[in-house]
Amino acid sequence: MKPFTYERVTTPAEAAAAATRVQGAKFIAGGTNLLDLMKLQIEAPTHLVDVNGVGLDTIEKTSEGGLRIGALVRNTDLAADKRVRKDYALLSRALLAGASGQLRNKATTAGNLLQRTRCPYFYDTDQPCNKRKPGTGCAAIGGYSRQLGVVGVSDACIATHPSDMAVAMRALDARVETVKPDGATRAIPIADFHRLPGDTPHIETVLEPGEFITAVSLPKPVGGIHIYQKVRDRASYAFALISVGAIVQRDGSGRVAVGGIAHKPWRVEAAETEMKRGAKAVSAALLAGAKTTHDNAFKLTLVERTLGAVLAQAKG
């Protein structure tokens, strides 16, 4: 781990200003992903801005009937919140499917959204990786790619986004609230928050330098049956091969978002018009244009079958 300086801040405005003042600064809260990356020198911040003292650790009802989740709410607390369990059960279930209890006790809402890929070539610093070191190439393309992306991929990167929580947030139409170093605020639809890799896979979100996440807001509940189904190589503490987050209404209509197949939580609203026709029709629309490898072509079938199981479960 390389040397770095450290400071604590007490307000979101101070956090944004501090990150801008020192080139190479990074925010740290739970640190469950960042510290691992620093030990491997994949991340080498010159300055850490500790944001644990800025508040933002509460869940509040909004005037529109939704919830506003502070950026520093821990995953354990969010999953256990009675309002989340009752009205946003998809979110609670996705959180409980992720990581271990110990990690959920430290991980934060904002940090979960900003997790970096678990592509093995990203973590192997002896291998080329356009996400870790732009312009060096992608060892995953032509390499071992069982875990990697099948839609929205590019010739520069086929990494996937690892978050379970973000899949639920995408199905729930969450908005990411931020403050910039100049004090300006904005609310970013989560559909626009994560970027596809294109030829700049190292730029993973639309956040600007120093921009600080303050909260994630959820619209008012939509009802329906909430299901999160995660398929992984072992029963606990593993990232998803694929995951399906769905909200299904009594008439068979609904929403669905998929994890483990793209550089971002994957939702295609047009595919949801096929919900009443079943998993095969939805999957065909959801995965249109998929670009698979020898190792990960099974994901197309796995998505369809998992979605089929989810829809069957919703029927009871």
Automatic annotation (TrEMBL):
InterPro entries: CO_DH_flav_C, CO_DH_flav_C_dom_sf, Diverse_Substr_Oxidored, FAD-bd_PCMH, FAD-bd_PCMH-like_sf, FAD-bd_PCMH_sub1, FAD-bd_PCMH_sub2, Mopterin_DH_FAD-bd. It comes from the Bacteria. Keywords: FAD, Flavoprotein. It holds the Pfam family FAD_binding_5. Residues 1-223 form the FAD-binding PCMH-type domain. PANTHER family: ALDEHYDE OXIDOREDUCTASE FAD-BINDING SUBUNIT PAOB, XANTHINE DEHYDROGENASE SUBUNIT C-RELATED. This is Xanthine dehydrogenase family protein subunit M.
